[in-house]
Specification:
It contains 5 helices and 3 strands. It is mainly alpha-helical. A 3-stranded mixed β-sheet has the order 1-3-2, covered by helices on one side. Helix 2 crosses helix 3 and helix 3 packs across helix 4. The model has no long low-confidence stretch (mean pLDDT 90).
Length: 126
């Protein structure tokens, strides 16, 4: 039995069908993990997003719009938890500050003092 078969049944499926099942798995797990992590950090920050969505995003891990709707990349669950937490805190801080000014970074630092290290790791600099 292949390791993939332990998560989803792949016997008798085409490559396209397998990729579709893997994608569904990532969507499901990303929704679960980001919901849990968001609930933890929104208490510390005193904010509540209007919604949390999971989507295929080609060039970012997350986004927050002016309606306080947070969207996470469906592949976020493939990252280490310390980077998932950084992304969650980053997006939650956008509810306070919709830009990346000093106040925004101070807000992140108040919850996650090592955010610069995590940001470097996420960007592949470390």
């Amino acid at each position: 039995m292949s390791p993939l078969n332990e998560v989803i049944s792949v016997d008798g499926f085409s490559e396209t069908e397998i990729l579709d099942e893997v994608s569904k798995f990532y969507f499901k797990m990303s929704k679960q993990v980001t919901k849990e992590r968001t609930e933890i950090y929104q208490k510390s920050l005193g904010v509540t997003p209007r919604s949390i969505k999971i989507d295929k995003m080609s060039n970012r891990w997350g986004s927050c719009n002016t309606k306080k709707e947070i969207t996470y990349n469906y592949l976020i669950v493939t990252l280490p938890m310390e980077l998932i937490d950084y992304i969650v805190v980053h997006e939650l801080c956008h509810i306070y500050h919709m830009n990346h000014d000093r106040s925004f970074w101070r807000k992140i630092g108040s919850i996650m003092p090592d955010y610069k290290k995590r940001m470097k790791m996420l960007n592949g600099s470390e």
